[in-house]
Amino acid sequence: MKYKIGVVGLGVMGHNLALNMERNGFPVAGYDLDAKKTEAFLNGPAAGKNIIGVDSPSALMAVLEKPRRILMMVPAGAPVDSAIAHLKPHLEKGDILIDGGNSFFMDTERRNSELDKEGFNFVGAGVSGGEEGALWGPAIMPGGQREAWEALAPIFRAIAAKVEDGIPCVEYMGPRGAGHYVKMVHNGIEYGDMQLIAEIYDVLHRLLGLKAVEIADLFKEWNKGELKSYLVEITADILTKIDQETGRPLVDIILDEAQQKGTGKWTSQNALDLGAPIPTINAAVESRILSSLKPQRVAAAKVIHGPKVQFSGEREMLIQAARKALYASKITSYAQGMGMLRMASDEYKYDLNLRDIAQIWRGGCIIRASLLNDIMGAYERDPRLQNLLLDDAFRSAVENRQEAWRLFIQSAIGAGIPVLATSASMAYFDAYRSETLPANLTQAQRDYFGAHTYRRTDRDGVFHTDWSK
């Protein structure tokens, strides 16, 4: 018997994807450098299933159907190159290697080019949804040779998450590193979403004195409407969890020091290279960095003083303003992320379909939300839409909430509570809708000290002024 696909790397993500594929009718051959991991998998979760284990690359190739499909689930970076070097001597022309990890898209570009020259196919597939998604249905963002996608499509479509309309949350993204690029931006948007939610929680908790369970009730209610999403749903669950040792809400005793694996930072770094404005995502990355300065913040809190944290307005009005601010900020954050994808599509010749990207993000992935149905609709109305804020429905949604949005931010700033991502979203909105910005002064300064020249509003041409006269 020949097996449909091989999985190299049988950690939690690898073995969950293997179980998912087997459950959907695709026999799997598993291989791991750690033989004990393979044995534990075969004798545990894979017992009695149409899954076998092998002990070498040559044994793996011998049992796989041609062209061989080999999914590598190893950590990003050097381990991927090591796995490729380990497997490549045993490949034949037309075989397909798939990197299902969170690799940097430029690494995927390099690997795709190198392997393509030798006659092999290489697919960088972003996989979102965590361990549970891997087992029961992730969102998958594959990029690489189109013929490789065609050979993988039946498997990926079977194992991907499905939403109410039954459409699988997977689609071909584009050539070379397109899949990992889309996954990178997905993770950047994820950073923004998480930070926006955290800031709403912080203001309600610190400024209004709401307890965790009270905020949980608000998020549960909000999750029934326009804010319905996976992250809002799990936030409500998190806020109800009680620590068994102390009897306090668990969230209250978790150290306020967020970690990151790098994909959000990559998004910010690449946005600077592209010239794509994504202040909400940048603020989220910076917020995590600031959180890591815990000892400094503890010391600073003792000597640097801000305003008294108090609120004298209507509590219910601020609660409703928080809900509206979160929705408006999310729209603005997605507008930044989708705008970055459009710029990258042109820069890297990916030919990304933004409607399809919104479609596959509706299920399985971490940023799945009802909002994505509306984003799909916006790109169906105008496939070349430059910015979500230019779509009539989204423009109206943000404009109608901006008074509450501003109230929320002003209240937080007045109390000295940081809202980096929420205020960055508002600043982006105000900058994008401004016909004029103070860059005229910036350009004059550049010309003054560096003779960088400038253009004029009243006639064409490039000009320089001797400012010392």
Task: Provide structural commentary.
This protein is of the alpha/beta class and 469 residues long. Helix content is 55%, strand content 7%. The protein has a seven-stranded mixed β-sheet, sandwiched between helices. Helix 2 links the parallel strand 2 and strand 3. Helix 11 packs across helix 12 and helix 14 (315-348) packs across helix 19. The longest helix has 34 residues, at 315-348. The termini are far apart.
Key words describing this protein structure:
seven-stranded mixed sheet, 7% strand, globular
Topology, please?
Blueprint: E1 5-8, H1 12-23, E2 28-31, H2 35-43, E3 51-53, H3 57-63, E4 69-72, H4 78-87, E5 96-99, H5 105-117, E6 121-128, H6 130-136, E7 139-143, H7 146-159, H8 178-206, H9 212-222, H10 230-240, H11 263-274, H12 279-291, H13 294-303, H14 315-348, H15 354-360, H16 371-381, H17 392-399, H18 402-414, H19 420-432, H20 439-450
Parallel strand pairs: 1-2, 1-4, 2-3, 4-5, 5-6
Antiparallel strand pairs: 6-7
Helix pairs in contact: 1-6, 5-8, 8-11, 8-12, 8-14, 9-10, 11-12, 12-19, 14-18, 14-19, 15-16
